[in-house]
Design a protein that fits this description.
2 copies of one chain form a homodimer. Chain A is an alpha+beta fold and about 260 residues long. Chain A has a single domain (about 5-250), classed as Jelly Rolls. Chain A is built from 9 helices and 11 strands. Chain A has helices spanning about 5-10, 20-30, 35-45, 125-135, 135-160, 165-180, 195-205, 210-220, 235-245; strands spanning about 50, 55-60, 65-70, 75-80, 85-90, 95-100, 110-115, 120-125, 190, 225, 230-235. A 4-stranded antiparallel β-sheet of chain A has the order 1-8-3-6. A 4-stranded antiparallel β-sheet of chain A has the order 2-7-4-5. In chain A, strand 4 and strand 5 (about 85-90) form a beta hairpin. In chain A, helix 4 packs across helix 5, helix 6 crosses helix 9 (about 235-245) and helix 7 (about 195-205) packs across helix 8. The radius of gyration of chain A is 18 Å and the shape is globular. The interface of A and B includes residues 144, 147 and 150 of A. Chain A binds a DNA duplex (30 and 30 nucleotides) through helix 8.
DNA sequence: CGTAAGCTTGAATGTCATCAACTGAAGTGG
DNA sequence: CCACTTCAGTTGATGACATTCAAGCTTACG
């Protein structure tokens, strides 16, 4: 039975001494951190707060005054149309944070909310500025992470514009495998994906019904297995081929791609 | 007859003393520049080079070593799928530039090419760094511009994911009106749009045929008129209503929105 | 055990894609 | 100077993919 519990990731650091902190793991997949940098990040992300699914961390029109760092669970950026249609524009997974440049723009033009139960750390503006000023290694890694976020957003545009329903879903699953793995939240054969088909629909620009049909198809083809909020990737090679998945845009430098 | 020629914009500065430099105009719609900042930008963007349509400024896999600033015309970010399908992920209009953070990431994960004849200035890395270091006002404005680019990308995700064909096209046209106006390249009633229906199709995730049909529909409804590479917006209120256009994401602060 | 909410399944509809033939404008060469 | 080519845009017919609506089926929960 696949391990869906988060406790898996809270165990003591593994034998090789690597951290289990998703932010540290993610940044280290992009750049090299000094021991001191790691210590600072470790300290900042202590004592996360638990947030239920479906709660906005930041809403449209807000003037945000801090940054939220996701330590566990899944949140998303989204907007609502007047007719109630929702479009999700990004997934925030462990190690992701929202709006480092929060101080620069006046108002949020979209919302950020939880899709599943999350553990979240709120970091205030002063701490962010301190971090960026006095820890150039961290600042550099955060900057890289922002660039990867942008590249990911571009890839989503391609997904919505030029891929079929099964391709869209397959591509998303391949992307999440690598991103979650970089954050230490995915096993080799799959990962917890505690979101509803409805969320998936609002991500891929489809309807819930069609997402479920497509998901069933992918299972029938032996590519994946989804149950209990856990996604097992049964045939990664074929899934990636179907999605035409090219991981370069994540700029993981081969560190977690294998 | 609407004025499609670029020469319109190269005339001597208007009576109010404002520049006609698209980069300066764009940045001033986001922040306040000092006279000295303006002078530096004016100097940097002198002597643009003419590039024919359909030419890559930067190609996938390149390790870029400079920044391209668009002074006139339209370029785009795009990728190609294995089957030849193209998805355009951003329009670069006058005042836009590519990849300020060029030095940070190893390789381009997409290409940048011209859609129409462009006037382009290449700025080398040293100049960029000098600019960012010694002109904090410019650095700040450029940073804001980058955030707006990201917000625009998110809006494109919404466009592709949750809007119908006519809505997508209408939304794009509304967006370009404001962006071009901020760069001093649009009149009140329309602007030069020297791109093909095929380009529009690869932008909106549709086929060329369907774009042409939809375009014809929009004309029949009296919303727009397109001819000779010039787009006239005949009924802006209805066009914006159709697209459900909310300009906040462009963060123009009311300066050019009216 | 009963209710509600979400997932599944089926059938009908609609939007957009595909394919192919036609039109028209622009450029080329005899 | 005019036929010829070419290519972009148009139009129509057909079909695929995804939506919509609705009914049955689980599952979770009180």
């Amino acid at each position: 039975m696949p391990q869906a519990s988060d406790d898996l990731y809270k165990a003591a650091p593994p034998g090789d001494g690597r951290s289990t902190n998703p932010l540290i793991l993610k940044l280290e997949s992009l750049a090299t951190l000094a021991d001191e940098d790691r210590a600072v990040l470790e300290q900042i992300s202590a004592n996360p707060q638990v947030i239920e699914p479906g709660i906005d961390l930041i809403s449209v029109g807000d003037k945000p005054d801090g940054v939220y760092l996701i330590m566990d669970g899944i949140a998303c950026r989204y907007t609502l149309r007047a007719n109630g249609a929702r479009q999700i524009m990004a997934y925030l997974i462990p190690g992701d944070y929202c709006d480092l440049d929060v101080a620069l723009l006046a108002r949020m033009d979209h919302s950020i909310g939880t899709l599943a139960t999350c553990k979240v750390v709120r970091i205030d503006l002063a701490t962010i500025l301190e971090l960026l000023r006095h820890h150039p290694g961290i600042a550099h890694a955060l900057r890289l992470a922002t660039l990867v976020d942008e590249a990911t957003l571009r890839e989503w545009v391609v997904n919505l514009g030029r891929r079929s329903a099964p391709e869209r879903i397959a591509h998303l699953m391949c992307e999440l495998l690598l991103r979650l793995r970089a954050a230490g939240h995915a096993a080799d054969e799959g990962y917890p994906l505690p979101i509803t088909p409805n969320d998936l629909a609002d991500t891929t620009g489809l309807t819930t019904v069609h997402v479920n049909r497509t998901l069933a198809d992918l299972q029938r083809q032996g590519l994946i297995a989804m149950s209990g909020g856990y996604l097992r990737i049964l045939d990664r090679a074929r899934l990636e081929a179907l999605a035409e998945f090219r991981p370069e845009y994540l700029h993981l430098g081969g560190r977690v791609a294998a």
